């Protein structure tokens, strides 16, 4: 019985393999699906799919976030399920640098290569790591803030969440830059904004309630924290440049805040490129070509002054609609 | 009160959920992805994904059959998970860590049960409060951070997926869950204690007048469930290889859903271990299958929600027909 089943399965797979000449199924697994950042990643993956299709390589994309956002166990389940699904490969933005190690190793063992994007994983089982140099991004934010403040003032760092490697690297980069200026005093760096706008807003309000009078510069390492902090600054009437705010990542609201002058600068990544390169790298590997272990997708500092330049404008408002029909 | 539960009536009682499981299997069998879904490796996958909910559902079955509810189990899983990671980091052996977690879980459960029974308070309210208290305590203990367990600890092997493309070998966590299920099923069906639990759930006043020490039995159900939750915390920690104070938010609802899909009545007096396990399997299978079909996450949520309502509705309809 077992051998019969095995033979049937083998036959099935060989048929599938023949039909699957130059055709790949790829699962792209983000940390969540509601942030605009992840929509850009999705758009990038679709861009890769379209370009590869033009070259005669058929890619079928599965776009699948964890059922409950920011739930590590749920993301593990998604990785496991696609491993069972025997997709050709997985592009994963791990929610945690440790918790996702085992499922990625299992996928590799089962012959499903994994490209890690956005956030690093404490493992050597991934094929490649395609991401922003987040430490550098944080440094850029710190340097900019130092210049804006003339090298002195009280600084708040509102952290994002523990265990998220990308934002932790930004925070470290920021602290590294701030350290070099003796006149800058860090008055809070141990509060976490959390995953949603609502909890980030609460954390910001609480911080400003305590430090609102004395703070002169703030750094927020992700989109939700930036938006929430801007809102909280407006509430106490210190937005619009009284307190210099540097954020990370761009979304509709934070770009608006930048234009209004409530946010002085945004460090932006290129998520579209990240999604694109994630898929392309995976396909190159599947075609037997060598791939780099680490790929940098670049960071830029956008201010009110340079935000209308075409290259910056494309980073602020990635052409999502061009690739995703929603 | 039914005094004899033959194997036949037991099968009948779990027949509804079992049919549901077959139905879900049948639906997935119609899709092209069946070649991936119905493989040994994937069934192992589903079993591992069900283990934590299942172990939680064992205790919850006891509680719900006894007419109670426990909303604090998700928080307790997070709390014991963080505690486990900390103990392992502190150099405790896997065995003593396991024992400690089970006892601490049991302590949380017993605390719930004592307040509910001792002060005659609504279980919903007491455990709702505990949900917040224990979650907060978990974050406090973890200093608002995830606590990474030592990567080479044997505890990490409990839920490991060795040989991912084959059904065998199943990880120890699955076997332990099965053994615990047999234990709880025997406890509920074959012991005096189990009869008391059913009696209290069906009619608490009547049970009290018949001489059942209602308070003690109630406190014990929460305590036993707590022991199991402590174990679920260990398994959750093993799966993440870390204690995460924010994990398992909403797990209590998954567990309650599994028990209810499995034919238990939230008003007490009905429910079975086998049914609850099948309920947990149905939800895991739905998630697994819709994942592999590439369906949107929101469709999964809608489907699982609909299944809960349908399962309970069908069960009531079946029972009302049986009563004539």
Walkthrough of the structure:
The complex is a heterodimer of chains A (326) and B (324). By secondary structure, chain A is an alpha/beta fold. Chain A has helices at 2-19, 36-54, 72-84, 101-109, 134-148, 165-179, 197-211, 223-235, 252-260, 271-286, 310-316, 320-323, and strands spanning 23-29, 58-63, 89-92, 114-117, 128-131, 153-159, 184-192, 217-219, 244-248, 265-268, 294-296, 300-303. Chain A is 47% helix and 18% strand. In chain A, β9 (244-248), α9 (252-260) and β10 form a beta-alpha-beta unit. In chain A, α2 packs across α10 (271-286) and α7 (197-211) packs across α8. Chain A starts with a helix and ends with a helix. Chain B is mainly alpha-helical and 324 residues long. Chain B has a single domain (39-315), classed as ABC transporter involved in vitamin B12 uptake, BtuC. Chain B has helices at 7-13, 15-29, 34-37, 40-65, 73-89, 94-118, 123-141, 172-190, 192-202, 204-209, 214-240, 251-261, 273-292, 297-323, and strands spanning 147-148, 242-243. In chain B, α4 crosses α13 and α8 crosses α9. The radius of gyration of chain B is 20 Å and the shape is globular. Chain A binds chain B through residues 9, 12-13, 16, 33, 62-68, 70-73, 76-78, 80-86, 96, 98-99, 101-102, 106-107, 109-111, 162-163, 192, and chain B through 33, 35-37, 39, 41-42, 45, 48-49, 52, 144-146, 148, 156, 160-161, 164-165, 236, 239-242, 244, 246-250, 287-288, 291-292, 294, 297, 300-301.
Kindly report the CATH topology of the largest domain in chain A. Rossmann fold
Shape of chain A: elongated
Tell me the span between the first and last alpha carbons of chain B.
18 Å
Give the CATH architecture of chain B. Orthogonal Bundle
Q: Radius of gyration of chain A in whole Å, from Cα?
A: 22 Å
């Amino acid at each position: 019985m077992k051998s019969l089943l095995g033979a049937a399965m083998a036959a099935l797979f060989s048929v599938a393999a023949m039909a699957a000449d130059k055709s790949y199924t790829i699962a792209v697994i983000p940390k969540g699906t509601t942030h605009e950042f992840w929509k850009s990643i999705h758009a990038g993956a679709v861009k890769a799919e379209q370009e590869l299709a033009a070259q005669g390589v058929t890619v079928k994309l599965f776009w699948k976030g964890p059922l409950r956002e920011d739930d590590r166990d749920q993301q593990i389940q998604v990785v496991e399920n696609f491993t069972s699904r025997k997709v050709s490969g997985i592009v994963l933005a791990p929610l945690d640098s440790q918790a996702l190690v085992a499922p990625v190793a299992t996928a590799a063992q089962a012959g499903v290569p994994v490209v890690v994007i956005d956030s690093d994983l404490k493992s050597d089982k991934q094929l490649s790591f395609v991401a922003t140099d987040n430490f550098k991004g944080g440094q850029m934010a710190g340097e900019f803030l130092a210049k804006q403040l003339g090298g002195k003032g009280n600084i708040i760092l509102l952290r994002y969440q523990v265990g998220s490697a990308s934002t932790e690297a930004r925070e470290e980069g920021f602290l590294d830059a701030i350290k070099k200026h003796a006149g800058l005093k860090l008055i809070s760096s141990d509060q976490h904004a959390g995953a949603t706008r609502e909890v980030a807003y609460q954390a910001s309000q609480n911080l400003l309630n305590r430090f609102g009078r004395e703070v002169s510069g703030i750094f927020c390492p992700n989109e939700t924290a930036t938006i929430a902090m801007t809102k909280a600054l407006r509430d106490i009437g210190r937005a619009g440049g009284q307190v210099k705010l540097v954020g990370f990542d761009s979304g509709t609201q934070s770009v608006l805040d930048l234009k209004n002058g409530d946010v002085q600068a945004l460090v932006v990544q290129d998520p579209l490129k990240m999604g694109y390169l994630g898929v392309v790298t995976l396909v190159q590997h599947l075609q037997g070509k060598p791939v780099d272990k680490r790929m940098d997708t670049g960071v830029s500092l956008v201010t009110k002054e340079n935000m209308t330049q075409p290259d910056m404008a494309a980073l602020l408002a990635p052409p999502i609609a061009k690739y995703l029909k929603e | 009160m039914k005094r004899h539960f033959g194997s036949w009536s037991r099968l009948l009682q779990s027949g509804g959920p079992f049919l549901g499981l077959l139905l879900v299997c049948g639906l997935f069998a119609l899709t092209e992805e069946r070649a991936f879904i119905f493989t040994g490796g994937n069934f192992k996958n589903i079993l591992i994904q069900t283990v934590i909910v299942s172990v939680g559902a064992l205790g919850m079955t006891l509680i719900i059959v006894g007419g109670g509810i426990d909303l604090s189990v998700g928080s307790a899983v997070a709390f014991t998970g963080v505690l486990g990671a900390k103990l392992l980091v502190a150099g405790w052996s896997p065995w003593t860590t396991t024992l400690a977690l089970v006892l601490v879980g049991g302590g949380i459960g017993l605390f719930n049960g004592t307040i509910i029974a001792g002060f005659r308070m609504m279980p919903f309210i007491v455990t709702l409060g505990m949900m917040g208290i224990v979650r907060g305590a978990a974050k406090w203990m973890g200093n608002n951070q995830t606590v990474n367990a030592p990567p080479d600890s044997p505890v990490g092997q409990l839920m490991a997926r060795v040989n991912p493309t084959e059904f065998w070998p199943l990880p120890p966590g699955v076997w332990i869950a099965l053994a615990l299920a047999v234990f709880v099923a025997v406890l509920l069906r074959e012991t005096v204690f189990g009869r008391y639990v059913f009696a209290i759930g069906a009619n608490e006043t009547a049970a009290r007048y018949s001489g059942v020490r209602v308070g003690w039995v109630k406190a014990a159900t929460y305590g036993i469930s707590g022991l199991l939750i402590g174990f679920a915390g260990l398994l959750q920690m093993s799966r993440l290889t870390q204690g995460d104070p924010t994990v398992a938010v909403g797990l209590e609802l998954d567990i309650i859903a599994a028990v209810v899909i499995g034919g238990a009545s939230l008003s007490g007096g009905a429910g079975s271990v086998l049914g609850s396990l099948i309920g947990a399997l149905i939800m895991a299978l739905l998630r697994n299958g819709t994942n592999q079909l590439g369906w949107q996450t929101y469709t999964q949520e809608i489907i699982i929600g609909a299944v809960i309502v349908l399962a309970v509705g069908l069960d009531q309809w079946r029972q009302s027909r049986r009563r004539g």
